Amino acid sequence: MNYRIQPTAQVDESAEVGDGSSVWDLAQIREGARLGENCVIGRGAYVGPAVRMGDNCKLQNYALVYEPAELGDGVFIGPAVVLTNDHNPRSVDPEGNQKRGGDWEPVAVKIADGASVGARSVCVAPVTIGRWAMVAAGAVVTKDVPDFALVAGVPARQIGWVGRAGVRLTERDGEPGVWECPQSGRLYEERDGALVERST
Fold this sequence. Notes:
mainly beta, 2 domains, nine-stranded mixed β-sheet, seven-stranded parallel β-sheet, 32% strand, globular
């Protein structure tokens, strides 16, 4: 067993926890969930049944990741983030009977490699967050987020681009559609509303 689980955490026997991962106090990992290697699950975080997480993911304190969410490698989920799974939530059916597990169809939030979701934001399923995208704290995401996009607000709207370093990109002087990371110097090109990394 090459991972760390605090005594107050609840990890179902059928859940898979990758090598080097840590599950902190009061966190709950439900049945069939799969965590990759070197993941960090913060205090009080919840990972629903059959959720899939890649390697090197971080779920900060009290984040709620409901099934059937899928997280790629290197995904960051800030404190108190909620990834929902019911687009039309109701406690009861039209006749007033309490809904059970088979009475509704869960839908997924999918987050691609390297993306970050800021503190207390909500992703309303079904929605996909692209590679290396960043969702600002407190945002409510109701539609797909492109790769490298920076989104903010309620509902979330794109306000810029970010690079792999998580720093907002700036457009290069005299080169429309070419964006540069102020920290790394890495270049990106905007094509038809999408951002791609310029090969070096």
